[in-house]
Amino acid sequence: MTAHRQSGTGGARDYERRDVAPRKVVYAVVGLFAGIALSIGIVVAVIALVDDGAPPARSALVATDRAPSAPRLQNAPSADRAAIEAAARERISGYRWIDRAAGRAAIPIERAMALMAARGWPDSPGGPPPPAAHADPDATEGPATEAPVTNRPASEGSRP
Questions:
Q1: In the predicted structure, residue 6 carries a pLDDT above the cut 70
Q2: Rg of the chain over CA atoms, in angstroms?
Q3: Whether the Cβ atoms of residue 103 and residue 148 lie closer than 8 Å to each other
Q4: In 3-state terms, what secondary structure has residue 58?
Q5: In whole angstroms, what is the distance from residue 95 CA to residue 111 CA?
Q6: Which of 47, 51, 84, 109 has the most CB within a 10 Å radius?
Q7: Where are the domains of the chain?
Q8: For residue 160, how many other CB atoms are within 10 A of its CB?
C-alpha cells in the first residue's frame, strides 16, 4: 500500500489512492462478533444438556473426617509458641555465663541497653575507648547482651 510510482507530471511522486473497502471491514467485525456469539451459544447449550440441576456429590475425601497420619508434630501450636517465647524472654532477661573460662557473661537486655545509652558503642568514631581487660564487670563488649567479667572465683549458681 505504500508503494509509489512516478507520475508523468513533472516527476512528482504519487501514492496509491486505493484503500481498504469499509464494507469489508464492517463484514469482518460483524463476522467476528457473530463467531463469539455462536461460541457462547454452543457452550450454554452443552452446559444445559450436561447439567441436571442437582448439587455435585461430595467426594470420599471430603465426606470423611480424617486426622493427619502420625507423627503429629505440633498438637498445640499456641502452647508451643508460648513456650518458645517464654524461653526467649528468659534468655534475654537473665544473667548467665557465655564462656566462664574467657570471663564472658550475658546480662539482661534492659541493663545492656542502659549501658549502651550511657557509654555509647565501643567502636564508634568519637565514642569512648574500649574498656580495659580487667575493668568494671558491667562494662560492655561485643553484642549488647554480653559483658566481660573479671576472672574471680565464684560459685556455680552465683550471678556474674
A1: no
A2: 42
A3: yes
A4: coil
A5: 10
A6: 109
A7: 4-50, 85-148
A8: 20
Helix H or strand E encompassing 95: none
pLDDT the model gives residue 152: 46
* 2 backbone dihedrals φ, ψ, rounded to 5°: -90, 5
- For the chain, how are helix, strand and coil distributed in percent, rounded to 5? 40, 10, 50
- 86-128 per-position pLDDT tens digit: 999 988 888 989 999 999 999 999 999 999 899 888 776 665 5
Rounded Cα distance between 122 and 131, Å, is: 8
Question: Is residue 147 classed as helix, strand or coil in its secondary structure?
Answer: strand
Helix axes 77-93, 109-119, angle to 10 degrees: 40
Residues with Cβ within 8 Å of 147's Cβ and at least 6 positions away in sequence, in order, are 104, 105, 106, 107, 112, 115, 137, 138, 139, 140, 141, 160
Strand order in the sheet with 146-148: 96-99, 104-106, 146-148
